[in-house]
Every structure is written in C-alpha cells, then in structure tokens.
Design goal:
By secondary structure, the protein is of the alpha/beta class. It has 2 domains: about 120 residues, Ribonuclease Inhibitor (Leucine-rich repeat, LRR (right-handed beta-alpha superhelix), Alpha-Beta Horseshoe), CATH 3.80.10; about 110 residues, Ribonuclease Inhibitor (Leucine-rich repeat, LRR (right-handed beta-alpha superhelix)). It contains 9 helices and 11 strands. Helix 6 links the parallel strand 6 and strand 7. It starts with a strand and ends in a 15-residue tail after the last strand. This is Leucine rich repeat containing 73.
Amino acid sequence: MLPGSIQITGEALSGAEIRDICESLKENSVRLLSVRGCQLSDRDFGRVCRGVSESRSLAQLNLNLGVVSSGSRAKQLADALEANRSIQTLFLHGSPLLDAGLVTLNTALSTHPSLVSLDLGDCMLGDEAVQLICGMLPPDGAKSGLRELTLSANPAITTKGWARLAIAVAHSSQLRVLNLDYNPLGDQIAGMLAVAVASSRTLEVLDLEGTGLTNQSAQVFLDMVENYPTCLRVLVLAENAISPELQQQISDLLSEGEDDDDKEAEARGSFVAPREKPAWLPHSSSNSQMVLMTSGLGESFLAETEM
C-alpha cells in the first residue's frame, strides 16, 4: 500500500470504517482513496463525499465497480468535486452512470482545476456523454483539460459519437493517453482515429485492444507511422484480427521514432528533459505487441495497482 493511501476492495464498509476514512480525509493525510467495489449506504457515501470535498491532499480517488450506483450518488460526487481542488485522477470504471449521470457530473469535471486523468470505462455512456467529454479536451492550451482518458467498454456510443471524439482528440492541446479498448469500433472508426492521431500534437498512447479491427485498420496505422510525423509512441492492437507481423512492424516503427527523437535532441546539443517512458510488459497473447502498464505521465499520477 502506498504511503498516505487507503485501499479497500469489495467489502461492506462499516460505520467505523467510514468514520476513519472521513477523519483521515479531514486531516489531509490521504493522497489515494480507493473503495472499489465496496458496499456502503447512501448516508455513508454522502459522508465520504463530504470528506472528499474538504480534503486538500487527496490526489487520486477510485470509486470503480459500481460505487456510484445511482443518480443521487452522482449528484453527491459532483458537489464534492466542485468543492475539492486537489484530485488529479478519478476512477469511475464500472459505474452505471448513463448519459444522465455524466450530465450531472459534467460541470464539476470540466471545471475542476487539477483533474487530468479520468476513467469512465464501462459506464454505459452514449453519444450525449461523449459530446460532454469532448468539452474536457480543449484545443486551447490556456484552459486546463484531460491528459489521460479511458472510455473502455461503452458499446452504446455510435459512429457519430466516435467521430465527434476523434475531432476533439485531433485538436486537443493536452491529451496524451486514450484508452478505447473493448468497444465495437471496427475498421471505419479506426480510420477516423488514425486521422486524429496523425493530426494530434500530443497523443502518445492509444489502446485499441479488442475493438474489432482487422489488417485493414493495421495497414492504415502502418502507413501513418511510416510516412507521417506523429507523437504516438504506443499503439495497443492486441485481441484483434490483425496479423502478428503487422503489429510488429508498427511497434518497431514507433520504437524507431522515439529513438530518433532522442538522437535529434542530443545532436542539437541543447538541454532537453528526458521523456518519461511508460513501463512495458509483453502481452499475454502470442504476438509481440506491448502493453502499457502505467500511465507514464509523471508524478502528478499515483500508481494504480489494481483496476
């Protein structure tokens, strides 16, 4: 467990445990609070939200796996986020928010002064929610926005919604990591995303694992990284109908591009801060595709060891 962290998974939280959590938040001694998959009453959830609103130390909040289980809880969380100024990373993966829940949270999320990483995977979102999320990816660098966004497993989003997101990604001034794994995207939407990646000045990681892609999509991405300058460093294509050879070619080209950037900086003789590289681990499948294990976005993110 990390210093200054409270991590509880899948338990029914007692009143005493809730009281301890709230006291720790009030004392500003907690950097990470994770109650993923825990059961707590609406009253106790409200108490935790009040503690979050008062905390000046909390940097990461994990409410994954159904903790935000109703519209009233979404409203309580929104109120807490509007008062809080310290949270940088918010996990809501597996919460049945629906579009209505994101409407409730939208103002708090899009105006939060510190939030840079948001996980809305498996939240039953649709096109209305995507339109709101696009507002969190501003093209103007003077306005704060997300640097890491997860929208995994939201199958209700249509082609229209993904097209709107692709446009926002293309023009985002800050987004560096985009996780869209396990959405039924297919080759057409992947083509839109390839255009967005080619246009983006910031995107470094794109996760398209298990999104229904074929060699057709992979060839488009291969042509892009082979012929056009891009910031992309990691493209996850595992669990798709894509040949290991194509995946390897793309991976090799992305690695070469990163090496070339480092060499150019060294040749200029000017001081350039070293690029923070994500941690890597071979994917469990038989191909050589690499899988991102950490966000790699620096000290502003605390390590999330289990999703």
